[in-house]
Amino acid sequence: MGYRHFASLLVAVALLSACSSKPKNDYDLNYDFTALRSFTQLTPQPTDDPLSAQRIQVEINNQLTQKGFVENTASPDFNVAYALLTQDKPKDSGLSIGLGTGTFGNSGGIGIGTSVGVPLGSDTAKIQTIQIDIVDPKTKALIWRGSDSYDFDAGGNEKAQDTAKAVNRILAQFPPKK
């Protein structure tokens, strides 16, 4: 019984880790990030999702302020820009193949089975990718970039929370620890 419990737990952890995304980032290895104290946000590009864009802008300010950075539009140490991309993603096919073995008394057996899911609703899902760029205002050079993606079905409170979590995951890696 202990083995089955352990195997079930292992499968659950693997499935949960597959659902979570890991944000990606890259940065200028020679840049002195310890000198950064203040920021301003650049005017964002027009988007077909203005509600998400507004949420991202507010969340960037919240996260950077919580990290101790001060918003300064007059002479910032770094500029922040972001991009938002929404795409359709095909849903899984729903085809499953299973293989099992078992014993009963002195007998044993092997079984193979398949199942096909019947799609309800749309056969595509939405995926939203957020990219945040940190730019040196003097040289206009990109010094740090982070991005993350998440799936969503509808808007509202759940999407707002997913957007905030994605921005938080991205900016958790800024400034980089050398």
Could you characterize what this model shows?
By secondary structure, the chain is of the alpha/beta class. The protein has a domain at 21-91 and 125-171: Double Stranded RNA Binding Domain. It contains 3 helices and 8 strands; from the N terminus they run H-E-E-H-E-E-E-E-E-E-H. The protein has helices at residues 2-19, 50-66, 157-171, and strands spanning 24-27, 38-41, 70-71, 78-90, 95-104, 107-116, 124-135, 142-152. The chain has a 6-stranded mixed beta sheet with strand order 1-8-7-4-2-3, with helices on one face. The chain has a two-stranded antiparallel ribbon with strand order 5-6. Helix 2 (50-66) links the parallel strand 2 and strand 3. Helix 2 packs across helix 3. 16% of the residues are buried. Mean pLDDT is 82; it is low at 3-19.
Keywords:
178 residues, alpha/beta, Double Stranded RNA Binding Domain, 6-stranded mixed β-sheet, two-stranded antiparallel sheet, 37% strand, elongated, DUF4136, DUF4136 domain-containing protein
Topology overview:
Elements: H1 2-19, E1 24-27, E2 38-41, H2 50-66, E3 70-71, E4 78-90, E5 95-104, E6 107-116, E7 124-135, E8 142-152, H3 157-171
Helix pairs in contact: 2-3
Protein name: DUF4136 domain-containing protein
Pfam family, one: DUF4136
Domain DUF4136: 24-176
Brief write-up:
With 178 residues, the chain is of the alpha/beta class.
